[in-house]
Amino acid sequence: MPKGEITHKMVKLCYEKAQYISRLKNPTVEFKQWVAKSIHDETEMNSDSAMMYIHAFLCMREGKRLGMSMSKDSVRYYFEQIQKDYGDDGLKKALQSVRLYLEDSIPGLRVLVNEFEKKIKDSEKLKVILHKKNVK
């Protein structure tokens, strides 16, 4: 693995640790830094990068502007996991977070956001169709 490359294992661990942090009431910056260092110790991921991935998750969960760029694969993983763990409402917040970031016109992410927004719309349409069939 080239130095500085962020692997799927690192992204997954950042997601899991950030998910834990999100459940805490007002976690301190020092605690987040400690978690980022624990990610570094386990995966050799740069602690600053781990901190940014943690922050990205927290922004996505709240629908706040994402403050850093992530690889398309990392964003896809976060979107898929957020949808799995928090449903379409959670995914909508994550999409909003990235959409706000896209004001800077990052190529590729706009397409990814549109793809997942379409998934939500298709899912909602399917729910309506199934509901109508069950009502009859």
Q: What do these coordinates show?
A:
By secondary structure, this protein is mostly helical. 76% of the residues lie in helices and 0% in strands. The protein contains five helices and no strands. α2 crosses α3 and α4 (72-101) crosses α5 (109-135). The termini are far apart. The relative contact order is 0.11.
Descriptive key words:
136 residues, mainly alpha, 5 helices, 76% helix, 0% strand, elongated
The whole-number mean of residue pLDDT values reads 89
Q: Uncertain segments of ≥5 residues (pLDDT<50)?
A: none
Measured as a percent range, the helix fraction is over 70%
Helix count? 5
> Strand fraction band?
under 5%
Q: Looking at the chains present, what oligomeric state does this protein adopt?
A: single chain
**Biggest β-sheet, characterized?**
none
Counted beta strands? 0
Helix and strand composition category = mainly alpha
Gap from first CA to last CA:
57 Å
- Helix and strand element order: HHHHH
Cα-based radius of gyration, to the nearest Å: 17 Å
Apparent shape: elongated
Please write out the topology.
Elements (H helix, E strand, L loop, with lengths): L7 H15 L6 H15 L3 H16 L9 H30 L7 H27 L1
